[in-house]
Amino acid sequence: MSKYKTRLKVRLILYNKGKILLLKQTKPNGGNYTLVGGNMESNETAKETIIRESFEEAGIILRPKDLKLVHVLQKVAQGEQRLVLYFKAQKYEGKLEARERRKFKAVEWFSLYDLPNNITETVKHVLRQYRKGNQYSSF
What we know:
Layout lengths: L4 E12 L2 E7 L7 E2 L2 E3 L6 H13 L9 E10 L2 E10 L14 E8 L9 H11 L4 E3 L1
Parallel strand pairs: 1-6, 5-8
Antiparallel strand pairs: 1-2, 1-4, 2-3, 2-7, 5-6
């Protein structure tokens, strides 16, 4: 029997005109910049989860055919295994806005090579790995 609980998560790397979309967390949630995404529910596929989370968090409407799996992160922390699937999209519809106001206060675009200083360590790690073309990493 495994000693770890395993959680499956998804994140979105959304590009538009050479920039990447980040969410700005509220101060009670860390105040950092992070990627759109969340936990997979038991009745969802990974693509269904990122489509749902993208709309719930940022008002983004995505289509499954526009999503490409570009990275898998394995993270071991506090007796828990996390597998995070990172999907890239370049097409979207909808009005960008921070919809979960208790968690996020803004959505902003940044150059992949000029990211804000207060980006989460996990996102920094994944984006470095992604830029190197690595499809898997652990953290």
